[in-house]
Automatic annotation (TrEMBL):
PANTHER family: ALIPHATIC SULFONATES IMPORT ATP-BINDING PROTEIN SSUB, TAURINE IMPORT ATP-BINDING PROTEIN-RELATED
Gene3D superfamilies: P-loop containing nucleotide triphosphate hydrolases
Lineage, highest ranks first: Bacteria, Pseudomonadati, Pseudomonadota, Alphaproteobacteria, Hyphomicrobiales
Pfam families linked to this entry: ABC_tran
Chain ranges of the ABC transporter domain: 15-246
Stretches assigned to coiled coil: none
Protein name, per record: ABC transporter related protein
Length: 278
């Protein structure tokens, strides 16, 4: 593996995307969902993908997790090609996708059915994860008895119980109300730091991306491609009203073409180093 630099320290390259593309046949016409996407993700890094609908963000996550092998280019973990799903990668979707006939603890434990772990260790892991997401007292509850935010925390616990190296998040908070979403953003950041997981988040919420990510991959559609990769100054961002936060947010909005925000084609020489593009 190759040592790469980032704004804080040196880390090892864990995931490499090289010229990744994905095309679909739509009514006899080739449609390029992704084209020439290249990215290196460091161990323990939090990456957020933002962009308009149709720019291939979710398609890219499915390829990385191993659910879609019809892509062009190369996806490698530690230099080895991804050729299918593996317990080292877990994914959380926008809908919690809990099984309604299973209790909370049984839904989380379902992720360990093929782990080969003894029953006692599976039970211990489930209990630990439910405690971590603050739902130990709801272990015997059913999904219909939970709020939306609680159900999504169960889905996150289910994804983390296998202790994956990579956690892929496909708009996991998108269906929640604003207040619940804000609370779970903090919980999600805490859980990922606690587990030391490398995370890749797809979101339409620019504030969410700036709050959580070490780097933001701004994508553009038709075909889906990388427009810019921005470093987020984690050491400078204290809250959503800080100048560093507002600069980072406004730059992303400009790259997305939001009216009132201007895309900067080139970083000026006197721009703070922590906001230079990667």
């Amino acid at each position: 593996m190759t040592a790469l630099a980032n704004p804080v320290t040196f880390r090892l390259a864990a995931l490499e995307l090289e010229s990744v593309g994905r095309a679909f046949d739509v009514a006899g016409t080739k449609f390029d969902a992704l084209r020439d996407v290249s990215l290196t993700v460091c161990e323990g890094e939090f990456i957020a993908f933002v962009g308009a609908s149709g720019c291939g963000k979710s398609t890219l996550l499915k390829a990385i997790v191993g659910l879609d092998r019809g892509f062009e280019g190369s996806i490698r973990i530690d230099g080895k090609p991804v050729d299918g799903p593996n317990l080292d990668r877990s994914i959380v979707f926008q809908e919690h996708r809990l099984l309604p006939w299973l209790t909370v603890e049984a839904n989380v434990g379902a992720a360990l059915r093929r782990s080969g772990l003894p029953s006692s260790e599976r039970k211990q892991r489930v209990a630990e994860q439910l405690d971590l997401v603050g739902l130990s007292s709801f272990a015997k509850a059913y999904p219909a008895q939970l709020s939306g935010g609680m159900a999504q925390r169960v889905a996150i616990a289910r994804a983390l119980v296998t202790r994956p190296r990579f956690l892929l998040l496909d708009e996991p908070l998108g269906a929640l109300d604003a207040l619940t979403r804000l609370r779970l953003q903090g919980e999600l950041a805490r859980l990922i730091r606690h587990e030391g997981t490398t995370a890749l988040l797809v979101t339409h919420d620019v504030d969410e991306a700036v709050t959580l990510a070490d780097r933001i991959v701004v994508m553009k559609p038709h075909p889906g491609r990388v427009a810019r990769i921005l470093d987020v100054p984690r050491h400078a961002i204290r809250d959503r009203s800080s100048p560093a936060f507002l600069r980072a947010r406004d730059e992303v909005l400009g790259l997305l073409g939001v009216p009132g925000f201007v895309e900067e084609p080139d970083a000026p020489r006197d721009r703070p180093a922590e906001l230079q593009t990667a």
